[in-house]
Amino acid sequence: MTDASPTLLVRAVLTAALLTAPGLSGPAAAQTAPPPPGLPAPVTTPTPAAGSLDALLLALRAAPGWRAADLTYRSAQLQLDSARLRAGLNLTAGASGSLSKVPWDGGDWTGNGTVTLSASLPVLPWSPLLEGVRSAERGVQTAALDLRAARGTLTAQLWQAYAGLRAAADALTLADAQVTLSAQLLEVARAQRTQGLLTESVLLDRQATLEAAQAGRDRAARAVTQARLGLTRLLGTDPLPATPDLSRPLPDLTPAGDEATLVARALAARPEVRRAQATLADALAGRDAAALGARLPDLTASVAAGQLASASGAAGRTVSGSLNFTTGVLGAQVSVPLREPRSPVSGVNLSLTASIPILGSTDGTVLRQAELGVQQAALAVDAARQSVELDVRTRVQAVQDERGALVAARTRVRAAALNVQAAQARLDAGLATRLDVAQATLNLTQAEQALSAQLDRVGVAGAALAQATADLDPLLLTLPAPLPTGGRP
């Protein structure tokens, strides 16, 4: 038996049984005939042309959560760009002016200005600026995984919301059928009461059944409205028409592979693990920097050449360079005075400056704190890996549970279809009424809806597993049909 839409089933079978047809004919019963016992029903149905699910997937790319994830990733990219600029070649132009009078008594005021051009570049591998670039690169990699995970989470939420909307629509269809059947039963009861075949209490009971069915129908209608509001909250808009086509079941996105393979893929791609690993790498870099700071004093080597002195005491045109071994930054500077100094003296000056703390140094404490940070980061990596592994194994079991329930749902549909055929046969033999056929048809509708809901639960569980293993690619889902599926037949 094919997985027909509950709406089509009610229109084709229930309406014919309750409203106009004197009895279910042979062709109508053939529509609900079960498949041969040896032919298994497929897990997923063929994907039709573009419909409501495609519209929802396209609208998801403009949802607030999707845009927020994009902005978060863009922020990480800008941080990397900023770190690269700070670690690149920096050029700075400056100017200074002075006015002096020597000696104080009888001297003349003398003014001069100097134009400078400075350049700096981190060259040593342990430079904090270069380490900042490496940390920002790890941040971008983690942000990319976070972006993919956020999109996957939104897609899984859309899967659940779409399944909820389909379930609410099916419940409304079933409620309409129950109202129709209860109305028929009440009409029969009134006729029997007129003939004196029923008591007043039985008639009131039938009337209460109709009223309860009508109240259930109102609840089902409100549930449909609530389900659409949930989609609107997720997407930021409602892209569906007033009466959407919800016949498309959710595709099965269960990733292929055994449990060990799925766990390995999740450990390699889940953002929680990669973020913990990036934090560990930052902690290791901080420990290495603290160890270097504890061993290496603040050491700077510099050289200056040019007009180092003059009769007025001011320097002339000079070129200088320096290398700070702690920060790993190589600097150069060119100074050109606007006025030539009197009697300049040219030469070269080499200097080496070291600063060694004797009392009150915190380098040892900083190093111990950095080592503790490394240990904490390593524990966080282990915790993240264990959490991801448990999550994947739990979702694998959920998929297996939903697939196991799918077999029983199909069996109930076959049993309900046989009951409809039996009721029709009894009606043809004069042993049953049209109400018996209608009740059997209603039971078949319920079984069909239960099967449809179970198929959706399989789809939701498969999408959740694909999200847990980082195999869910929301961008591919927005491409034209057919949607990708990795599910087992």
UniProtKB/TrEMBL annotation:
Keywords: Signal
Gene3D superfamilies referenced in this protein's UniProt entry, alphabetically: Outer membrane efflux proteins (OEP)
InterPro entries in the record: MdtP/NodT-like, OMP_efflux
Keyword field contains Signal: yes
Signal peptide residues on this chain, from the entry's feature table: 1-30
Amino acid composition bias (Pro residues), ranges on this chain: 33-45
Membrane-spanning intervals of the chain: none
Highest taxon in the source lineage: Bacteria
Family: Belongs to the outer membrane factor (OMF) (TC 1.B.17) family.
Protein name: TolC family protein
Native organism taxonomy: Bacteria, Thermotogati, Deinococcota, Deinococci, Deinococcales
